[in-house]
């Protein structure tokens, strides 16, 4: 019996799920990836676009080049998910499915905070990073504010990387003595889910680069006319250039389909990524995955929204679906392991990796900062953007060797 698997979203999770399913399933089964954009933009490189180390065309690739032969790619806007009748409607057609993988990611909602949309630049989109690069040339002095505007947000290390890369940008242009870089976040420390050791290490990295770090600052509004940041219970802060991490939300069609919980994200079984609907899975930034421990007594810790987790979750889901279709027991489970490379400028990077399902709270190990980790991030960019085929396999081998040398658990 022929099965059709629909994968919604062509980001990290969607591509990995599609490629792994196509690898494991026989040709009669259909693997269909639906993505509204013809070109995939590699989000980890947006920070390099911001600093001018990459041009936008360097970090994009046609989605069809990044998937295996035999993966059907449909370029369309998804309009409706009908889980009761196992159908997905696009702007062009209605598609039936036997299995559904939702990998639609998170949307940015600049309009959620008064004044933010008109005042802020953002490096969380490719176009935004390019515009920010142009704006940086006009900053001769004053305060550059990097602001986490709301929780949760994807790529938890990105705000700290951005602050350090901006400091390095102005240092290289001999403007560091006239430009102050400050990072504001509602969190009590950098990446609280990773624990105090990583938080302290990141704060030290920021301090060594003379970056002001301001935790527990919840943004309530921005006044573009006076260039002021307004925080809950804190004095207003003046800025000359604002780089914001916008509020995130799930796509409306996910909420309309009844897949989301009260917070707007899709709850899943943390080991299998299954939703409460039969044969419907969700992976990546769209999900809500609880981990052991609590941020505050009233706030449970949640798995960070990051590509490394989307990648691992996609492999688990693809292998479980393939096993079910083959009629064998599905044994693959998501273990909560992950790592993060943190760019620090000067071709340096730090790295942390750990077990986010460890009891009684996530266990994270921090490695020393160095050029090797920066090189690792560059290699991964090359590997991810390489067209499918010989070049991709060669880079995969390179990364596999590198992971053994540097001791990072990497899953392909």
Strand proportion, as a percent range, falls in 25-35%
- At the third CATH level, what is the topology name of the largest domain? FAD/NAD(P)-binding domain
Shape: globular
Number of domains: 3
Mean pLDDT: 93
Helix count equals 10
Biggest sheet, spatial arrangement of strands: 5-2-1-9-20
**End-to-end C-alpha gap:** 29 Å
What does this structure look like?
With 412 residues, this protein is α/β, with parallel strands linked by helices. The chain is globular, with a radius of gyration of 21 Å. The strands form nine sheets. The chain has a five-stranded parallel β-sheet, covered by helices on one side. It folds into three domains: 4-106 and 250-332, FAD/NAD(P)-binding domain; 109-247, FAD/NAD(P)-binding domain, CATH 3.50.50.60; 335-412, no CATH class. The two termini are 29 Å apart. 29% of the residues lie in helices and 28% in strands. The chain is built from ten helices and 26 strands. α1 runs parallel beside α8 and α9 (371-385) runs antiparallel to α10.
Which characteristics define this entry?
single chain; 412 residues; alpha/beta; FAD/NAD(P)-binding domain; 3 domains; five-stranded parallel β-sheet; four-stranded parallel β-sheet
Helix-strand blueprint:
Blueprint: E1 4-8, H1 12-24, E2 30-35, E3 39-41, H2 46-51, E4 60-62, E5 71-75, E6 78-82, E7 87-90, E8 94-96, E9 99-102, E10 107-108, H3 116-119, H4 126-136, E11 142-148, H5 158-172, E12 179-184, H6 196-208, E13 212-214, E14 219-223, E15 228-231, E16 237-238, E17 241-245, E18 248-249, H7 252-256, E19 266-267, E20 280-282, E21 287-288, E22 290-296, E23 299-302, H8 307-326, E24 337-345, E25 348-355, E26 363-370, H9 371-385, H10 390-406
Parallel strand pairs: 1-2, 1-9, 2-5, 9-20, 11-12, 11-17, 12-13, 19-21
Antiparallel strand pairs: 3-4, 6-7, 7-8, 10-18, 14-15, 15-16, 22-23, 24-25, 25-26
Helix pairs in contact: 1-8, 9-10
């Amino acid at each position: 019996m022929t099965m059709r698997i629909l994968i919604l979203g062509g980001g990290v999770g969607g591509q990995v799920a599609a490629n792994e399913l196509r690898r494991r399933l026989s040709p009669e089964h259909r693997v269909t990836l639906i993505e509204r954009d013809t070109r995939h933009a590699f989000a980890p490189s947006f920070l390099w676009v911001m600093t001018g180390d990459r041009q936008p065309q360097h970090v994009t690739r046609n989605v069809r080049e990044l998937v295996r032969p035999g993966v059907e790619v449909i370029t369309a806007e998804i309009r409706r998910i009908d889980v009761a009748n196992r159908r997905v409607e696009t702007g062009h057609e209605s598609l039936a499915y036997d299995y559904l993988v939702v990998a639609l990611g998170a949307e940015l909602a600049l309009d959620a905070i008064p004044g933010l949309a008109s005042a802020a630049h953002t490096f969380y989109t490719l176009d935004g990073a390019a515009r920010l690069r142009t704006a940086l040339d006009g900053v001769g002095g004053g305060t550059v504010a990097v602001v986490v505007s709301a929780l949760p947000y994807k790529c938890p290390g990105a705000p700290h990387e951005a602050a350090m890369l901006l400091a390095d940008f102005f240092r290289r242009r001999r403007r560091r003595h006239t430009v102050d870089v400050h990072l504001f976040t509602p969190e009590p420390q950098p990446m609280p889910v990773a624990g105090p050791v990583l938080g302290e290490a990141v704060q030290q990295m920021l301090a060594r680069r003379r970056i002001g770090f301001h935790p527990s600052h919840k943004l309530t509004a921005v006044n573009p006319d006076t260039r002021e940041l307004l925080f809950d219970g804190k004095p207003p802060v003046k800025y000359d250039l604002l780089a914001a991490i916008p509020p995130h939300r799930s796509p409306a069609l996910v909420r309309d389909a009844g897949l989301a919980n009260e917070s707007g994200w899709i709850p899943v079984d943390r080991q299998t990524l299954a939703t409460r609907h039969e044969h419907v899975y969700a992976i990546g930034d769209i999900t809500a995955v609880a981990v052991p421990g609590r941020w505050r007594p009233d706030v449970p810790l949640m798995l960070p929204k990051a590509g490394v987790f989307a990648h691992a979750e996609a492999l688990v889901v693809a292998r479980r679906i393939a096993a079910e279709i083959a009629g064998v027991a599905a044994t693959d489970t998501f273990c909560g392991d992950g790592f993060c490379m943190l760019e620090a400028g000067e071709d340096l990077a730090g790295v942390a990796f750990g077990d986010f399902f460890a009891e009684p709270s996530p266990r994270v190990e921090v490695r020393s900062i160095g050029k090797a980790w920066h090189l690792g991030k560059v290699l991964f960019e090359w590997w991810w953007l390489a067209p499918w085929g010989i070049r991709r396999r060669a880079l995969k081998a390179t990364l596999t060797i590198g992971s053994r040398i540097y001791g990072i658990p990497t899953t392909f």
